[in-house]
Design a protein that fits this description.
The structure is a homotetramer of 200-residue chains. The first copy, chain A, has 200 residues and is mainly α. Chain A has two domains: 9-71, Arc Repressor Mutant, subunit A (Orthogonal Bundle); 85-195, Tetracycline Repressor, domain 2, CATH 1.10.357.10. Chain A contains nine helices and no strands. In chain A, helix 1 (12-29) packs across helix 4. The longest helix of chain A is centred in the last third of the chain and has 28 residues, at 120-147. The interface between A and B is medium-sized, with 34 and 34 residues. Chain A binds a DNA duplex (31 and 31 nucleotides) through residues 3, 5-6, 8-11, 14, 35-38, 40, 44-49, 51-52. Chains A, B, C, D: This is TetR/AcrR family transcriptional regulator.
DNA sequence: GAGTAAGCGAGACGGTACGTCCGGTCTTTGT
DNA sequence: ACAAAGACCGGACGTACCGTCTCGCTTACTC
């Protein structure tokens, strides 16, 4: 049985330095060339301090992102609800497309995704900590649309999110096409066609 | 200037041994732990023989797959066309889902995808050599459906394929849900709703 | 300026535990693999408690031995003096040879010697605290022999001790020959030949 | 079973660079602070190249010395034989004392000795490759003295060498006294007294 | 007897070196 | 001339200890 470190004694300054160094280095050299040694050196930290608290390089990257997000709007993420579902969704999808297209976030997000593909545990953690809260907000907006009769009342909302986002995600991941605002709009339109209420 | 090896003198036996070893090792230890040295040792080949003919580990994996596919039906891939678009698509989608769900092909396909995510060039090559021919066959079937009035005549067929496959691909890649035949069916149904001809 | 710990407050129980642990570990794993961490762990003591009271690993080993010796006859070590110098010396030399040959004391004595070879200060301390008193007793016996006319009156007694003991020490240290009682006897005989009074 | 490297393919330039670096570093920083990494770096060599050919740090040091000696008078070491045993021995012993007293050779010889004390195998190798040939030459001189009636005919020559050299060795190793020419002379004189032929 | 300061067990920390593994290059020896 | 074999330099891996540094806790000594 491996000895467990005592989290109460953890040095918060070191933790922050490591996460920051990890983020910076992913942006600079890319995920494939990222090394624990380089993170430790950049953070001014002993390697053991990384190995003590994280089981893998992927876990460090993951925490680096988690820390970023938690620094954001702590609770209650809410999507715009103007009453016009199509307009609201287009706005959100365009924003997502723009974020993906931003070269600055390119490397780190890609790193995180590769790590999730390799490590199911990490992927589950990602969903729980980062994706689910956001998805819940999105589903809340869709439920509001269902109540307003703009969306089929019996629509599977998880499927709905997949329909909306998976094509965008795939294009970005495999670089199989441009992530333009027009493409975002098109996805929303097709989605609405698929999910609109039956004419009765 | 690097010296170019002469492909005419290439040892076909070594090439096959390398590709086979690469496939086997990816299945056994996973992509992340796959090493060139191990491939060379398993194939009974000098490391240089690998470096001489392939620029990267990803390229070897890619060729290993390409070789597999080319062993298949060399030309003229065609999808079933019974006249019933929904049934035909469900069959194809169920087959795709089953292939993804098969643990045997899990590791290698995942390896190939990670490599494509990291290496745009490889991704392009993949599309050109493997994906496009298959996609063309799929689009042929959809065009047939358009002519039969089962699909909107002005539908963007590339978008159509994304709509159909991206959710499946995303679920598999991130393990975010089960790849059941029912799910395959559902995707086809939603797709058809989104792409059906306007009632006029 | 380093803060000096107050010896009055020193925990005797910890001190003993450390010395005992050090002795045990030297026997078990040898000097080269002895670590401060292991001593602390074995003794159930914080590392700092060792660093507070000893300047080096060698100093701990040294004290471990000192403690052992001080447990013995506190003052007034005296060699047997039966009047027969040769018999008396042979007894003492055989005992020394036997002690060196004992596998139990092998590792720790070797450890102490290596430390002395590396650290002149420690060697001086060793001579002052452990070797000199013993040597003084030996020289007292030799002086008695000089008075009895069994040894040259002008013999250099320090040189005499070197002549007697150095060959034994060298054999033991470098394992260059067996440490038998016969060898001990031979050394005494040769020594007496070299140091006997001139016939004149 | 570990794979054995093929000595035929060994890079002689690397071997020399490693041995030279080892010698230099022992002189500069001492044996205790000598590291394999530093040797590799100084020699411009990968660490693996050291680990491939030597089992331990001590073995490297040992080879470094062996190489030095082998560069010397390849075969047939002979001591001076003027017919005057005392004068010849004093010359040799004074030279040995001077060599030990030389600060330049201090660190490396001490390193080698510590390593031999710790590693019986290394000590045996040392005797076989370095000490025995030299000792044989010394014994040859003593045999010549026996034939000339200057030394007891039945004297044990191995013991004789111990008697002569062990006190010197011990003084040097433990720094227990000065290594003056006078001391060397005294040792020879005492030795001759102990080993001279019986008056008959 | 309360307050305080030291030593204490514990163990996290910034580091250094370990010995191993592998990447990519170069050299030797067939064939 | 390519291939197998594998030594080479380089560099990251994950581990072990170093000696230092906080933590609370216990244990004297002081007031």
């Amino acid at each position: 049985m491996a000895k467990q470190p005592n989290p109460a004694r953890r040095n918060e300054r070191s933790r922050q330095a490591i996460l920051t160094a990890a983020r910076d280095l992913v942006s600079e050299v890319g995920y494939a060339k990222l090394t624990i040694e380089a993170i430790a050196a950049r953070a001014g930290v002993g390697k053991q301090t990384i190995y003590r608290w994280w089981p893998s390089k992927g876990a460090v990257i993951f925490d680096a992102f988690l820390a970023l997000s938690e620094a954001g709007p702590e609770q209650g993420i809410a999507l715009p609800d103007t009453g016009d579902l199509e307009a609201d969704l287009k706005m959100v999808m365009r924003a997502t497309a723009a974020e993906f297209a931003d070269p600055a976030s390119e490397a780190p997000i890609r790193a995180l995704n590769i790590e999730m593909i390799n490590d199911p545990g990490l992927a589950a953690q990602y969903r729980e900590k980062l994706a689910d809260p956001v998805n819940e907000a999105k589903k809340a907006r869709l439920r509001s649309a269902q109540r307003a009769g703009q969306l089929a009342a019996d629509a599977d909302l998880d499927l709905a999110l997949e329909l909306l986002y998976a094509p965008l995600y795939q294009r970005w991941l495999l670089r199989s096409g441009p992530l333009t605002p027009e493409y975002a709009d098109t996805l929303v339109e097709v989605f609405l066609k698929a999910m609109r209420p039956e004419p009765a």
